[in-house]
Design brief:
Order of helices and strands: EHEHEEHHHHHHH
Mean pLDDT: 97
Distance between the termini: 31 Å
Strand order of the largest sheet: 2-1-3-4
Radius of gyration: 16 Å
Number of helices: 9
CATH class of the largest domain: Mainly Alpha
Largest sheet: 4 strands, mixed
Low-confidence stretches: none
CATH topology of the largest domain: Glutathione S-transferase Yfyf (Class Pi), Chain A, domain 2
Helix content: 40-55%
Number of domains: 2
CATH architecture of the largest domain: Up-down Bundle
Shape: globular
Bound molecules: glutathione
Strand content: 5-15%
Number of strands: 4
């Protein structure tokens, strides 16, 4: 399988399926197209019909969109723990992942992912409300489903991958969060795969300003 991704420093959507695949031990080749360069769109469109990354190529099949990719992988590799095994936990994991996939527009606009950057953001009331909602999601998941491990649903699952870019944004913009959230962030950041992604992003030559 081949995973088409954007810059590791900037492409939050690419990080999600990449991290899922690494954590699930799924072998794949990664193809990185630096975003917003002269021919980026053309290069992406050669593989991804939406013109966006990520896209997963499996033989003749192309799957674009991070959530569709993760669902495909969960079906193709059952038993790798991509979603929690318990149906109730799995349903909530899908809910919080879908909430991230479909929402948090203030965060996306004002705190865009720039992993190696250290910035200050003007956090208005609407953005703060989204930050509070994310911290509440993390606390609720940890309290209800997290007893068997340090992640949202105990063991690592796709839900953690969906929130991994938020973890890096909170670091980049020095967002103040409760201790429980800080602990969860440290857990995600300590993953060897996250460390690899962060180091690869830090070494990239491209610099984008949003
Ligand atoms: N809903 C899509 C969003 C994909 C997306 O917006 N990707 C951005 C990069 S993080 C992109 O490809 N931007 C390049 C462009 O629009 O030209 C997903 O979940 O995969």
């Amino acid at each position: 399988m081949q995973l088409l991704i954007g810059n590791k420093n900037y492409s939050s959507w690419s990080l999600r399926p990449w991290l899922v695949m690494k954590q699930a031990g799924i072998a794949f080749e990664e193809t990185l197209v630096p975003l917003y360069q002269g021919d980026s769109k053309e290069q992406i469109l050669r593989i991804s019909p939406s013109g966006k990354v990520p896209a997963l190529v499996d033989g003749d099949l192309v799957i674009w969109d991070s959530l569709a990719i993760v669902e495909y992988l969960a079906e193709k590799f059952p038993g790798r723990g991509i979603w929690p095994a318990d149906p109730a936990a799995r349903a909530v994991a899908r809910s919080v992942s879908a909430e991230m996939h479909a929402g948090f527009t203030q965060l996306r606009t004002h705190l865009s992912m720039d992993i190696r950057g250290r910035k200050t953001a003007r956090i208005d009331a609407a953005t703060q409300a989204e930050i509070d909602r994310i911290c509440a999601i993390w606390t609720d998941c940890r309290n209800h489903f997290g007893e068997n491990g340090p992640f949202l649903f105990g063991a690592f699952s796709a839900a953690d991958a969906f929130y991994a870019p938020v973890v890096t944004r909170f670091v980049t913009y020095g967002v103040e969060v409760p201790d429980s959230a800080r602990q969860y962030m440290a857990t995600v950041l300590a993953l060897p795969a996250m460390q690899q992604w962060i180091a690869d992003g830090a070494a990239e030559p491209w610099s984008l300003s949003f």
